[in-house]
Design brief:
Elements (H helix, E strand, L loop, with lengths): L4 E4 L1 E2 L8 E2 L1 H13 L3 E2 L2 H16 L2 H4 L19 E4 L2 E4 L2 E8 L3 H12 L5 E4 L20 H9 L3 E4 L12 H19 L5 E3 L7 H9 L4 E3 L18 E2 L6 H10 L5
Parallel strand pairs: 1-7, 1-12, 2-3, 4-7, 7-8, 8-9, 10-11
Antiparallel strand pairs: 5-6
Length: 266
């Protein structure tokens, strides 16, 4: 099994652009996923799936006989018991998909959130902590960001959150100390605000190298999401998780091919 992770940014009306998808198109995509039997999973589910495979390779024949002690994984998203397949150390839906949003734009709450709830889907949003409740401080700097109150409401409904650094910089352009500050400060702020461990990170702009990857790991994260295309199998490096960018100008055919192939190739 290979699991697709879809990467969104903005869901709102407006000029068609790479990182903005219209609510109508987003609804059509969620309707397609639901109609084809896809069910959303959480990053925790994905990590257990990957780690289960890694642990399996290390198990002895005697340990395999103690299968009764295998961990049963229940998706925090919306897995239904009648539609699951057993994998070692857990269960996943037959057609799992992980939905992610980068940056934390307010339209994730005003437009995407109601649509996702309509289809009983959950998502993970990677937040830029400095700008929550304000306008974004990168790009053109004119986009409203999620408030902490909105984040709390989505959290109560089963949505999960991760770090997208503190100010959304290109980490490759920063000194080691500044990279560590971006990674650690965002984690600390999110944990203080949300009252839970923040264990997933998304590299801003998808920019990283082996040193940054090790710094993320050393800061206490258990996984990191890249912009490398493709789907994720059971041998994946949890700090190089692949995602499929869903662009505002993608057609339905693009979307279907993305799901099947990990990229549209057209």
């Amino acid at each position: 099994m290979k699991i697709p992770i879809l990467m969104y940014h903005k869901v709102s009306p407006g000029q068609k652009e790479k990182y903005r998808i219209s609510p109508e198109k987003f609804t059509s995509q969620m309707e397609y996923l639901s109609g084809k039997g896809y069910q959303t999973i959480s990053p925790d589910d994905l990590l257990r799936f990957i780690k289960g495979a890694r642990n399996e390779r290390r198990e002895t024949r005697d340990e395999e006989q103690r299968d009764k002690s295998s961990i049963v994984l229940v998706s925090k998203a919306n897995a239904r018991p009648s539609s699951v397949v057993r994998v070692r150390r857990g269960t996943l839906p037959q057609k799992p998909v992980l939905l992610t949003f980068d940056d934390g734009y307010k339209d994730n709450f005003t437009h995407a959130y109601p649509i996702l709830k309509r289809y009983n889907f959950r998502a993970t949003i990677f937040l830029v902590t400095r700008y929550m409740g304000k306008k974004n401080g990168w790009s053109k700097g004119n986009e409203e960001m999620l408030s902490w109150k909105e984040i709390e409401e989505m959290k109560k409904e089963g949505f999960s959150f991760g770090s997208h650094a503190h100010t959304h910089p290109n980490l490759l352009e920063l000194s080691r100390n500044k990279v560590l500050s971006e990674i650690r400060d965002s984690k600390r702020i999110l944990e203080e605000r949300l009252g839970e461990a923040i264990i997933f990170f998304a590299y801003p702009y998808g920019k990283f190298n082996s040193k940054i990857k090790e710094m993320v790991k050393g800061a206490g994260y258990l996984g990191a999401f890249s912009t490398l295309p493709g789907k994720n199998g059971r041998n994946e490096d949890p700090f190089l998780l692949r995602r499929i960018l869903i662009r505002g100008y993608d057609t339905k055919l693009h979307f279907i091919l993305n799901l099947k192939l990990g990229k549209s190739r057209i």
